[in-house]
Design goal:
The structure is a homotrimer. Chain A is an all-alpha fold. Chain A has one domain: Ammonium transporter AmtB like domains (Ammonium transporter fold). Chain A contains 16 helices and 2 strands.
């Protein structure tokens, strides 16, 4: 009898261990997928800028992921999840003396993943919000002030608003819902992008007396590689946000995410054909991204047809939004504001329209409240930082350098030779 | 006692759950890997075409994956697996009203993966067959008719022939074997490519009175990126076709797949050196793909040395086949017909020569039968569609546009600036 | 009662099976990630060379992975792990007759993965050491002699020194520690690179009477893609070296690896700004790689702050080391010697400074011993092979071909048109 109980107990322990291994591995694979989104952003942004500014945007992108990881490790993570393991600033301290502690942490998060897994997954997320900004201020922003902005944005702005919802803060208590970050990641990045684009001003020659002069990207295969890699990474971004390998949930998220991306492509294709009379590759690429941003808030709680509608509308928004920002002369070389801010807002509202969540969760009222407070906070934060930098060390290269290109000006190099 | 039984029962439930999570995660990771093959095709094809047609081929590739997912969701999946969950056209209906149903679907497929996982994995597969066609008709096919062809091909041709085997149809009953789709995916795409290339005709200036004029691709790094990404994705394409995370099977498939790819590279290297007296990068790249296509039908049931032979022969076929199609003046800018059709046929025959399967499964007779009927059906289907399109809206851009390039003609854009 | 025992036993079996599936899947995913590092090397190296030598370096890279897999299958694996399944030269023989044997091998490695999984993971590792060499001799080494070198290096040099530690040989018995190969993979490749660069000599025009003439790479986006893909793959390289999906260990390795890469970027950024007064993208990219190589020996046994220090120093070494090799006129177009040899040595020493391992493991003495003997053996081996090749068939293209470019000379092709 006691022998049977011992076999049963051993079986239960092994079963729990196996489940823990499988769930944790999914979170780690999701981390790897989110990581490669940084390459997606790097290639997308460098494809969309001119040849003379390519080294600069690549340099920014490798610095952002590095700075992002370090800033989030040092400050951001503790600030965003203060209820975890001692809270604010504790993670860095913890890591300092106790590497072996890992093994003792396996019971974290209902046994789904380790504390270390949680950190590295969250850290990969965190760094993305600055990458969004870098695209909007490309081709004229000075390198060092921008990197300084990134440190502050990842250390403070992203984790503070993230805490409100994902750290079980006040927005969470009110029933605000944002599954994987239409607002908390994409709009946060988008508001930063808007503040940056406003304060740094449009590129020379974009808006002239004779009207808008389009400045085409220098390398469309590179931009296309970027969008495919972002879609690829989004399986981890949304799929990992399930926070376990739950088969029903993760597979649902995979379908809603893919369908929204596909529908976003079709939406942008149709609207840009209707409005601009052309099969515009850049629009279709941004349509895919718009669909992905749009579904991010509700990928775990909508039907497939709803995902198609959400994605289609998000994609259709893209050409209109890009046209709108050009009309009000806010210059955003890669369309980051349209993709991440506008579609992020749309996706957050879509939760209230299409989402199947608990009573009182994701109502239109609280979704609008969340959009508003996160928007006001992030935009103000970014605006103040950029404004102070502008008035002190400056945030824009001088006219001569901009014409010559930032690659020569900031790096004494060229991307191609 | 009953306490012991309850522990044992709980252990068994948890163990089954853990196994389900792990198996399902593998199918989802395989889905992600198959997804990135679309980027592989996009970069391979855009690398192999001329600068003036790059935007067009990229545009086609992002549209194909989007259209493919939507078509397969709406019609294809229900048609291919009619025995599943209510059959033909039911999936779309199912998804419509019942997102929560996910959780109730966990017992699907012997508890190895969810119904949703099955769909998204299959949908990623489905879209690849059109991508194969797009390469063969590149640089002269009109955009809209081609996209229309894709809708019909993914909605009808691919799932109908797929049903014959994978949907437990009549070819399956006869013992036809095609593990991951040498015939059902690659040859299907290859027959479509052949029909398209025949009806759209060769590119201007390729076959002149003075003989063949080679038209080199515009960007070999891009093409190389494509082949590496396709190999990378093939771990999911073949590995996921195990339909579970079975350690012995998936690891065997990884080795046979890799070894065939490596041997395909060497085969193409040697034969193209012997025949064309040159170390031709394009041939070696297509040799890798040939090896991968060749092993796809039998990756789960051949020894490693057999995989080497299958891959080596497939790779060696490539330079000869590409030469052959050029001699009969069928112009295929990326070699898709040689890679996917010819090596797909070879791989399907190889099942009968090298495969270790049950009695009566994969005999030479039934393999040839499968190749023939799938070939006749798919080629006829594709030919009729292309023919109707040719006689109505036309499938080829006009001469002036072809000379100027489709990027300007169809998109008013250039890939580089 | 016996019914209860039977449920308990079934639960235990299922639990063990689930654990086995999950652990094995991690090793296979790690294999896929290590595979894509070959694309990382291909794009990095082709980005760092001149336009006229791009086809050649791409050709080398696809041949290396193919030759590497075949050589390691035929000879290397059996030589490196002689204690496994019959030893030297047995694997090829085993694979020959016994594909079904797979299923009988599931108890291999404590039930964590199959024998086949072990082979394919190790084989992907093995091929990387030649890729490291190819970068250092780029733009002037002849194709065929180099490929011959690769066959010998992967078949003999890599597995022999690998056996000393990972095959439970004498270095392992002495307490030498090298978690994932700072010495056994990266330095081995680095010593080969040094021998090759010495014997093949600097590129024409690099070191002139008027001093060093920098030869910038032709495509910085391509090089950046390479570094991101290498970082991406390193999650599998280091994470897979845990040899199971152990949640605590793998997640720790993910953090130490990422943090060292990020700190390496910052280290190279700062030092190259101080020394060369410029924000050098190439240096920052190699700084990331330096950080990754540096942490590879101890990723499983250092604290996060230690990982930051190891990575920062590795990254800081890069600009100094690249400057040093240029001063002593050893020409290495991609910086492979600095990244893989110098940072590999640093990482192996760092085990003794920062590592938390068992008593007597990884002491400074034994680490230096390991560095020395592996270095002497590999360098001598590579030097002799390259020397014999130089004196017989020659290892360098002639002056005219070098000036014209190896793409035309060896392949009658150009990378772009």
């Amino acid at each position: 009898m006691s022998e049977t109980l011992s076999v049963a107990q051993q079986a239960l322990d092994t079963a729990n261990e196996a489940k823990f291994i499988a769930n944790n591995l999914w979170m780690l694979m999701a981390t790897v997928l989110v990581f490669i989104m940084h390459l997606g952003f790097a290639t997308l942004e460098s494809g969309f800028v001119r040849r003379k500014n390519v080294v600069n945007i690549l340099f920014k992108n490798i610095m952002i992921v590095s700075i992002g990881l370090l800033s989030y490790y040092t400050i951001g993570f503790g600030l965003m999840y203060p209820g975890v393991e001692g809270g604010f600033l504790e993670f860095a301290g913890f890591g300092l003396n106790n590497p072996e502690g890992t093994l003792g942490l396996i019971e974290y998060a209902d046994g789904n993943y380790t504390y270390y897994t949680d950190f590295i997954f969250q850290a990969m997320f965190a760094a993305t919000c600055c990458t969004i900004v870098s695209g909007a201020v490309a081709e004229r922003a000075k390198l060092l002030p921008f990197l300084l902005f990134c440190v502050l944005f990842v250390s403070l702005a992203y984790p503070i608003s993230g805490y409100w919802k994902w750290g079980q803060g006040w927005l969470d208590a009110r029933g605000f819902y944002d599954f994987a970050g239409s607002t908390l990641v994409h709009s946060v990045g988008g508001w930063g992008a808007l503040a940056g684009a406003l304060l740094v001003g449009p590129r020379l020659g974009k808006y002239t007396d004779k009207g808008l002069k389009p400045i085409p990207g220098h390398n469309m295969p590179l931009a296309t590689v970027g969008v495919f890699l972002l879609w690829f990474g989004w399986f981890g971004f949304n799929g990992g946000s399930v926070l376990s390998g739950d088969p029903g949930m993760v597979s649902l998220v995979f379908i809603t995410t893919s369908m929204a991306a596909a529908a976003g492509c079709i939406g942008a294709f149709i609207i840009s054909k209707l409005v601009y009379r052309s099969y515009d590759l850049g629009m279709a690429l941004n349509g895919i991204l718009g669909g992905l941003v749009g579904i991010t808030a509700s990928a775990d709680g909508v039907s497939i047809p709803s995902a198609l509608i959400i994605g289609f509308i998000a994609g259709g928004i893209i050409p209109l939004s890009i046209g709108f920002f050009d009309r009000i002369k806010i210059d955003d070389p890669v369309g980051a504001t349209s993709v991440h801010l506008v579609c992020g807002i749309w996706g957050t509202i879509a939760v209230a329209i299409f989402g199947n969540y608990d009573e009182g969760v994701g109502t239109l009222g609280v979704q609008l409240l969340g959009i508003a407070v996160v928007g006001v906070f992030t935009f103000t934060f970014a605006f103040i930082i950029f404004f102070i930098l502008k008035k002190t060390i400056g945030i824009r290269v001088d006219k001569k350098e901009e014409i010559k290109g930032l690659d020569i000006g900031e790096h004494q190099a060229t991307a191609y030779s």
